[in-house]
Structure formats: structure tokens, C-alpha cells
Design goal:
- The protein has 18 helices and 14 strands.
- The protein has 436 residues and is of the alpha/beta class.
- It has 2 domains: 197 residues, Rossmann fold (3-Layer(aba) Sandwich), CATH 3.40.50; 196 residues, NAD(P)-binding Rossmann-like Domain (Rossmann fold, 3-Layer(aba) Sandwich).
- Helix 10 packs across helix 12 and helix 10 runs parallel beside helix 13.
- Bound molecules: uridine-5'-diphosphate-glucuronic acid.
- The site of uridine-5'-diphosphate-glucuronic acid (UGA) has 20 residues, from helix 10.
Length: 436
């Protein structure tokens, strides 16, 4: 089978590379010529473990091609995946202008039956809109189907998530479209991955509901963590015991500085809009969004409280990406921390294993260091924002000896409070501050 993927951002590129690994012929399209040129050589524009090898291998074996022309992908493909960006507009709704543009282009070149699949996270009802946009621009009357096939890829572990997913969701209108989609995912079918086959609207809503539920879980445990700090409880033990209940499950109960990234913050707000437009109330999701904003602010106010005043103080930040194994800083909690510190007159020095160039573009005034040890030299406080593996086993005695004051804010709870206190740090974490 031959498929086309329009948009070589995170979702499009991972999807294209993984399908080609399944033995499918894939043409990935992006209008950015430089990007396509680089991709042909195997240069990946972002950091994702394992992706470069996968792209290089499948390009070399002739199953993965890149082009700047939508026409190239459409003519040869039976299924065309739309994987372009749907950035949030000022009011939080998803901007569908790229999806519309691509739909119209598909209409222009469609000469035979095709199935048009949305991979991007799109508001409920977008499938219907795509059908309308294509019909309006189509020459003649070619038969086509629309399908929704949301992705559940986590940045940093996207390839594993694609190859061994918990489920594959397919929303489609016709038996032919369902059969093609099943065929495409045959390797996953063979390893008994559960398939959820449903209508397009349901598939579209599954994506928003899944992301929003995970966001709710995180905000819930963050609020419980803050309560733990007030009552002498340990949030890790609370979360572990909760998670042992199979109805709750252990995942996404890790407290921290609030969720970030390009998905949860955007998708929760988009879902609230969708509900609002229909006069439906989603109080739980709304509360999760508010709790997340408060969590970010709380982390800064704790730091401020510990330092008295941050003005003129030097603060070291370890970890800038919104989570480990990615250079993505979109909605990263570190952005809020750095902005608050700079606004209140602190001097900030920072280090991240891969996201430094991205953060430099946003905050050129921060002093970027070459490693963790350089970052803590002479600081009044150290704030660990992202749990990169290389921060899990730092030489703590060396860290302490170079800091001006031993204020250690571990916002990912990677160190043990009693050990840190024993070492002489003023150690602050999330939900384990008051345990005796
Ligand atoms: C998320 C979902 O997990 C994917 O299933 C989904 O496909 C993707 O969004 C998307 O919509 O494209 P991602 O944003 O890459 O994936 O990252 P997550 O691992 O979900 O983490 C999101 C944020 O929550 C991070 O800031 C992370 O630090 C935070 N988090 C996560 C916690 O604070 N606690 C946890 O227990 C888990």
C-alpha cells in the first residue's frame, strides 16, 4: 500500500516513519523546502529518541520519501493523512486554517478513490468540515471517505507508543474505509492491539477526552501533594497506594510543577470551548486547568518565600524542556518560572541537555551553561524543573559546595527528602515537604 502524510511536524514524521517501518510505502509532504531537503538526508528537525535511525533506514530502503508537493503524495496514495498543525487561537479554539488549505489541495489533485484521515488533534466536527471543503473544491465527482485516527504518542517515547499502543482508534463512515485502515495497521492487529472502530465524531472526542482525563489525574495529584505538605503526608506513598487500585491505575499520578507541552494545555482548553459552544459544562476539566495554573504559580511563590525576595538573587535552573527526552519547551513549566524570576529582578542561569537553543530564542538574557555543575555555581537557589536522567544522580556534595546558599527546589521529586536534609540542603519538593 502507498500512503501520503501531509505535514512533517512531530506527529506526521513519527507516523510516516513508523508506517514505513511496517513495510508501507510512504510519501511525507511539507512545503518547507529546507526541511524536506534535510529530511531526505535523515536530519530530523527536533529531538526524538530513535527517530533519526528509523528515518534513515527507511529512506535508504526506499519505503520513505519526502516531497514538497502535495500532488506527489495524493496521486500515488490510497490513504492520505492530514498531520498539519492546529495551533490554538487567542481564544483557545483550534485554528483549522492549515487543515482547510490541505483539504482544498487534496480536492484539486484527487483523481481516484481515496481515504482522507485526520491524525492531527482536531475539534469534534472537523471530519464533516473536511468532507465539505473537499466537495466544494473538487473537479468532477470522485468517491472518497473521511476517517479520524487520533494519535496517542508521547514526546520522548513516540516510536514505542506507535509500535506498541494500548489501542488504535479508527473513526470512519464506510466499511471500505475501515478495511483499508485495518489493513494499514495489520502488524498491530497481529500483536492483538485492541482496535476501537467507531464513527468520526466519537473518534475525535476520544482524543480530547483521553488527554483531558490525564490532565485531570495530574492536577488531582498535584492538589493532593499540596495537601500532603500541610498534613505531614507523603504524596508518593499516597499515589502508590491509590494506583494499586486497578480502578485508578498507577500512571500519571506523579506530582510536579504542573503539566506542560503542546497537548494537555491546548487540548483541555479546546475541549472547554467545544463544550461551551454547546452550553455544556465540563467543570472537572475546568478545575484541572485552573489547578495547573495555580501549581505553576505556587512553585514560584514557594521559591520567593524561601529566598525572601528574588530581586538580585542568582537562581540556577536545571531542565528546560516540558519533559525529558525532548527539546520541546511549549508551555513548559520552566517558561513560567524563568519569566517570573526575570520579571522580579533575579539573575537566571540554566542548563538543559537538548532544549537550550530553544529557550535561548525566548529568553536571550538567561545565562546558559554547559552542564549542571556550571549552572549551580554561586546560586542562591537551584530549581530542578525537568527530570532528565542525567540529573538523577548528581554529585550532591559537589553541588552543595559550589552553591552560595543550599536551597534545592526539586520540583520533580527525584531525590529523597531525608537524604537531602542530611546533606545539609534546604530541600523543597512537591508533596513531601512536611514528612517527619
Ligand atoms: C500527551 C499524551 O500523553 C499522549 O498520549 C498524546 O498523544 C499527546 O499528549 C498528544 O496529544 O499528542 P505528551 O504531551 O508528549 O503526551 O507528554 P506526557 O508524557 O503526557 O506529559 C505531559 C505533561 O504532563 C508533562 O509536562 C509532564 O511532565 C506532565 N506529567 C505527566 C506530570 O506532571 N505528572 C505525570 O504523572 C505525568
Amino acid at each position: 500500500m502507498h500512503i501520503g502524510i501531509i505535514g512533517t511536524g512531530y506527529v506526521g514524521l513519527v507516523t510516516g516513519a513508523c508506517f514505513s517501518e511496517f513495510g508501507v510505502s510512504v510519501t511525507c509532504v511539507d512545503r518547507d523546502e529546507q526541511k524536506v531537503k534535510a529530511l531526505k538526508k535523515g536530519d530530523i528537525p527536533f529531538y526524538e529518541p530513535g527517530l533519526e535511525e528509523l528515518v534513515k533506514r527507511n529512506v535508504a530502503e526506499g519505503r520513505l520519501n519526502f516531497s514538497t508537493k502535495v500532488k506527489d503524495a495524493i496521486e500515488s496514495s490510497l490513504a492520505i493523512f492530514i498531520a498539519v498543525g492546529t495551533p490554538p487561537r487567542g481564544d483557545g479554539t483550534a485554528d483549522l486554517s492549515y487543515v482547510k488549505e490541505v483539504s482544498e489541495e487534496i480536492a484539486r489533485y484527487m483523481d481516484d478513490y481515496k481515504i482522507i484521515v485526520t491524525k492531527s488533534t482536531v475539534p469534534v466536527g472537523t471530519g464533516k468540515k473536511i468532507r465539505k471543503w473537499i466537495k466544494e473544491k473538487m473537479n468532477g465527482n470522485v468517491d472518497f471517505d473521511i476517517a479520524s485516527n487520533p494519535e496517542f504518542l508521547r514526546e520522548g517515547s513516540a516510536i514505542g507508543d506507535f509500535m506498541r499502543p494500548d489501542r488504535v482508534v479508527i473513526g470512519a463512515e464506510s466499511p471500505q474505509a475501515i478495511a483499508i485502515m485495518r489493513d494499514l495497521y495489520r502488524p498491530l492487529y497481529l500483536i492483538e492491539t485492541p482496535f476501537v472502530i467507531t464513527n468520526i465524531e466519537t473518534a475525535e472526542l476520544i482524543k480530547y477526552s483521553s488527554n483531558s482525563f490525564l490532565a485531570v489525574k495530574i492536577s488531582f495529584i498535584n492538589e493532593i501533594a499540596n495537601l500532603c505538605d500541610l498534613v505531614g503526608a507523603d504524596v508518593h506513598i499516597v499515589a502508590r497506594a491509590m494506583g494499586l487500585d486497578k480502578r485508578i491505575g498507577p500512571k500519571f499520578l506523579h506530582p510536579g510543577p504542573g503539566f506542560g507541552g503542546s497537548c494537555f494545555p491546548k487540548d483541555t482548553v479546546a475541549l472547554l470551548h467545544l463544550a461551551g459552544e454547546r452550553d455544556a459544562e465540563l467543570g472537572v476539566v475546568e478545575a484541572a486547568v485552573k489547578a495547573n495554573e495555580k501549581q505553576r504559580a505556587l512553585m514560584f511563590s514557594r521559591l520567593k518565600e524561601a529566598l525572601g525576595d528574588v530581586s538580585g538573587k542568582k537562581v540556577g535552573i536545571l531542565g528546560l524542556s516540558f519533559k525529558p527526552n525532548t527539546n520541546d519547551i511549549r508551555e513548559a513549566p520552566s517558561l513560567y518560572m524563568i519569566e517570573s524570576l526575570l520579571n522580579e529582578g533575579a539573575k537566571v542561569q540554566a542548563y538543559d541537555p537538548v532544549a537550550t537553543p530553544d529557550m535561548k530564542a525566548v529568553f536571550p538574557k538567561v545565562s546558559y551553561k554547559k552542564d549542571a555543575y556550571e549552572t549551580v555555581k554561586g546560586v542562591d537557589a537551584l530549581v530542578l524543573m525537568t527530570e532528565w536522567n542525567q540529573f538523577r544522580n548528581l554529585d550532591l556534595a559537589r553541588i552543595k559546595s559550589t552553591m552560595k546558599s543550599p536551597n534545592f527546589f526539586d520540583l520533580r521529586n527525584i531525590y529523597a527528602p531525608d537524604k537531602m536534609k542530611e546533606l545539609g540542603f534546604n530541600y523543597y519538593c512537591v508533596g513531601r515537604n512536611s514528612i517527619k
